[in-house]
Design brief:
heterotrimer; A mainly alpha; B alpha/beta; C mainly alpha; A: mainly alpha; ABC transporter involved in vitamin B12 uptake, BtuC; 2 strands; globular; C: mainly alpha; two-stranded antiparallel ribbon; 71% helix
Chain lengths: 305, 251, 327
């Protein structure tokens, strides 16, 4: 039992860091530019499809990595340049609608390119094994890698924002847009860079997700909505909140999915128990969000008090 | 002595390292017009925010009509009789001037959970709204204009009419003259003089001519502290005020 | 104001008469399918008009109104299922196939859900409110995906139309007239609400909450009541849609559906009475037209929406010179 708990906990952390990669970009873009971008999930999907297609075509993992990052980055910058740039001064409603239109476009575009069947992506053979994390508890090396990458990104973002000139501008730009502009900084370039960074992180999450989950149309929105829960729980605009919220949501979701159906099976027929268990555990993170909202309407780590 | 209408005791508000309000005490008595002056950055806006309920102080308390209102929301304080105007005019810009005032009248008449009758043709709202506009000297011929299309001076006056709609116990005016031309300023001063005595006021204002013409008492705010309170003559003569305030204004 | 004039009322009456005559035109043109399309348009128009109450007049951007639409549909579906099986719900509430029972139930259920979700969501504002309403709708969606006894993912068939005294809903024209009639009544009710004191407060919420607080108005209860009214409206729309489709599924409450309803409001013109109706007609019409041309219609619909947002401010009603506050 404790083996299972340890494994599920790690699975939770793994989902958590994936959510963090998305939430960090979403919350940065919102915090700095005041833009809500529903198509953030599309970048995740595009990263996953590009990587899966490159891996299938070339068999090279390095190329898959490059393809995933490049596709998400390029599409992200294009979205910023062509669409979002016109929407910075508009209200959230316009941003939501425009990026909703983008989702329809990208999802159907992927269907036209790859069809409706999910793509499968293998774990690279040299990562196919397991690591014994505790005596007698093996854990897939690939998932450990995801966790390591996610945590490394968290540390990297922290250093970037706290200790570099770009980070300083990012922090200042969030609250004093005019002042940053007055300092002679090209704020448009800054925006494009930040947006590109967010897109790369989403693409990174997508390409890493390939071997763990299905690469399929709609994968972006599934995780996007969970990412919203993360951002709301963590506090909008806060990277620290994004990390904390992501881990909390990832672990809660995974543990509920792992254990609720089992608990229900003692009371219900198996198929009903599994279905109800799945839906109850899907609801769990939303209930968590409701509780957080009751206690702290602005999230656990509100960015600007 | 009778309990003052509004009393602030030992208010403290810090933003990070900056102390915007520093152990400040202040009162507004029945029937008086109390002016609050101070150089830019003295913390007037922060103080107004705390008095109206938009900003929560870190320490101290605020009594309105003898009741501790420190934890109460802005809306609750407004319902107790604290009406206000804003430094940057706050109106419903898509609605007509008349509809703006009618909404203020409506808010004063109790709850608005009435779903059927048309508010725009409700005489109990529009008659009173017109009367209020007339009282503050708003050109009634222009009451059908969108508030967003009115001149700055008209918007300031309109906001005053909205504040009066609630028959306030205390009126808090945040720079009513700001941005007005000389003639508009004079007219606003006249309007306030007419209201004076009938409605107690706390007036935050940069226009010294208006302040010295209207105020019964003046409090000078510098770096979040009240450095002096007294009549116009006392304030004029106060050396600390001269040092801290006039030096900046003219130096 | 032009909307008070007799001309305006005349135009409305003419539009309603034209809409009511549609089944005859469909028959004459030998295009019975268009009655069904028009029925869907009417259902979505009810939902969009309801969302417009809080979105267009209250400035509350709810991205989760499909939840109430779906709950309204499921009220019809679940009541039918228990009627068919002859088993009361929880052993207490008997099933029903009478619209006079199922429609009020749909309104009650969606209203209660909107009250619960609204009470929590309205503690936030701005972009958080958008995210939270979306997330709660997703929660409801997952709940129904998991309810296997009501079909789960696959949804639930409603074998026969609900019964209404004096009407036969098996006749597409009669079902359409019912939907159109309810749409007209609902629009009139919303019109009264928007013009009332309550509507004025809601308008204040949209334009300037700070001003409302300074007037002594605590806005939360007003926002919540408006949220519930709009949820009830979506419930009505869902119940009628379930009667048209004779089928309900979690897809009715998916996030895309929420997006669609929102798009209808914006496309038609926020804060106008006929805007959401026009938006529903346009979007459903567009989907059918594009859908007839290519299976990849969302690929084209997406950029169209984008262009509407970027360049067509004020929506389709704006093209007719009708904007917020003028009709």
């Amino acid at each position: 039992m404790s083996t299972l708990v340890a494994e599920q906990l790690l699975n939770g952390v793994q989902l958590g860091v994936m959510l963090f990669l998305l939430a960090a970009g979403l919350t940065l873009v919102f915090g700095i530019m005041g833009v809500i971008n529903l198509a953030h999930g599309s970048l995740y999907m595009i990263g996953a499809f590009a990587a899966a297609a490159a891996a299938r075509a070339t068999g090279s993992w390095g190329l898959a990595l490059l393809a995933g990052l490049a596709a998400a980055g390029v599409v992200g910058m294009a979205i910023e340049l062509l669409v979002l740039r016109r929407l910075y001064a508009r209200d959230h409603l316009d941003q939501v609608l425009a990026t909703f239109g983008l989702i329809l476009f990208f999802n159907q575009g992927i269907v036209m390119l790859f069809g409706r069947q999910p793509l499968f992506m293998q774990v690279p053979p040299w990562l196919g094994g397991s690591v014994e994390i505790l005596p007698g508890v093996p854990y897939p090396a690939y998932r450990l890698l995801i966790i390591a990458v996610g945590l490394a990104v968290a540390v990297g973002l922290y250093l970037l924002i706290q200790h570099t000139r770009i980070g300083m501008l990012v922090r200042a730009g969030a609250t004093h847009r005019e002042m940053v502009r007055a300092l002679g900084v090209d704020i448009r370039l800054l925006y494009t860079l930040v947006f590109g960074l967010g897109a790369l992180l989403a693409g990174l999450a997508g390409l890493m997700a390939g071997p763990v989950y299905n690469v399929s149309v709609g994968m972006g929105e599934q995780i996007l909505i969970l990412t919203f829960v993360v951002v709301v729980i963590g506090g909008i605009g806060s990277i620290r909140g994004a990390l904390f919220g992501a881990l909390l949501v990832g672990i809660t979701d995974t543990l509920l999915r792992g254990f609720v159906p089992g608990l229900l099976r003692s009371a219900l027929p198996p198929d009903q128990a599994d279905a109800l268990g799945a839906s109850l555990s899907s609801m769990g993170v939303y209930l968590l969000m409701a509780v957080v909202l009751l206690v702290k309407p602005r999230g656990l780590f509100p960015a600007h008090a | 002595m009778a309990e003052p209408l509004l009393r602030a005791e030992g208010l403290v508000k810090r933003f990070g390292g900056l102390t915007a309000t520093d152990d400040l005490s202040l009162d507004v008595r029945t029937g008086e017009l109390h002016a609050l002056i101070g150089p830019n950055g003295a913390g007037k806006t922060t103080l107004i925010g705390q008095l109206t309920g938009e900003i929560r102080p870190d320490a101290g308390r605020i009594l309105l009509l003898g009741q501790d209102v420190t934890p109460l929301s802005a809306a609750r304080r407004a319902r107790m009789g604290l009406a206000r105007s804003f430094q940057i005019v706050q109106l419903l810009d898509d609605d007509t001037a008349l509809a703006n005032v009618a909404l203020a009248v409506q808010a004063h008449q109790g709850h608005s959970f009435r779903f059927w009758r048309r508010a725009a043709t409700d005489a109990s709202l529009t008659t009173r709204a017109s009367a209020l506009l007339e009282e503050v000297g708003f050109d009634l011929a222009r009451s059908g204009r969108r508030a967003g299309d009115l001149s700055h001076g008209e918007r300031k006056v309109l906001e005053l009419a909205m504040a009066l709609a609630s028959e306030p116990r205390l009126l808090l005016l945040d720079e009513p003259m700001a941005g007005l031309g000389p003639s508009e300023s004079l007219r606003m001063t006249e309007t306030l003089r007419r209201l004076k005595g009938r409605i107690p006021m706390l007036l935050v204002e940069h226009d010294m001519d208006a302040v010295f013409a209207l105020a019964d008492r003046i409090t000078v705010l510098v770096y979040g502290r009240a450095i002096a309170t007294g009549s116009a003559e006392e304030i004029r003569a106060d050396p600390a005020v001269r040092d801290a305030y006039l030096a900046e204004e003219h130096g | 104001m032009p909307e008070r004039g007799w001309t305006y009322r005349g135009v409305l009456a003419l539009l309603l008469a034209l809409a009511a005559a549609l089944p005859f035109a469909a028959q004459a043109l030998d295009s019975p399918a268009s009655i069904g399309i028009a029925t869907q348009m009417a259902c979505f128009a009810i939902a969009a008009a309801s969302l417009n109450l809080i979105l267009g007049h209250g400035g509350l951007v709810s991205f989760g109104h499909a939840a109430y639409f779906g709950l309204g549909g499921y009220a019809v579906g679940i009541l039918w299922e228990h009627f068919r099986l002859g088993e009361p719900i929880f052993g207490l509430i008997p099933g029903s196939n009478e619209l006079l029972v199922t429609l009020p139930t749909a309104m009650l259920v969606s209203g209660l859900a909107a009250a619960a979700i609204g009470a929590l969501s309205l503690r936030t504002s701005g972009v958080q409110f958008i995210m939270i309403t979306l997330a709660f709708a997703q929660m409801v969606f997952f709940l129904f995906v998991g309810l296997k006894q009501y079909g789960g993912d696959d949804g639930l068939s409603v074998r026969r139309h609900n019964l209404v005294p004096g009407l036969d809903l098996r006749d597409p024209a009669q079902l359409y007239w019912l939907c159109l009639g309810i749409l007209a009544v609902w629009l009139f009710l919303l019109h009264r609400i928007i013009g009332s004191r309550f509507g004025r407060v809601l308008e204040g919420v949209r334009q300037n909450e700070r001003r409302m607080a300074a007037l002594g108005v605590s806005t939360y209860p007003y926002k919540l009541v408006a949220f519930v009214i709009s949820g009830v409206g979506c419930g009505i729309a869902g119940a009628l849609m379930a009667n048209y489709l004779r089928y309900v599924s979690p897809e009715m409450m998916s996030w895309q559906r929420s997006g669609d309803i929102m798009v209808m409001v914006i496309l038609g013109g926020m804060g106008t009475m006929l805007g959401p109706v026009l938006g529903a007609v346009a979007l459903v019409g567009l989907e059918y037209t594009l859908g007839g041309l290519t299976e990849h219609w969302p690929f084209f619909l997406g950029p169209i929406l984008l262009l509407v947002v970027l360049f067509l401010r004020g929506g389709l009603m704006g093209l007719f010179g009708v904007r917020r506050g003028s009709g």
